[in-house]
Amino acid sequence: MRYTDLLARLTGLGVAAAGAALAGNTVRVAVPGGLRGVDAAALGSLPAPAAVVVVVGVALAVAGVVVLLGRGRAVAVSVGGVAAVVAAASLALGVGSAVVVVGVGAVALALLLAGAATGGRVAA
Question: What parts of the sequence cross the membrane (predicted)?
Answer without folding.
Answer: 47-69, 74-93, 99-119
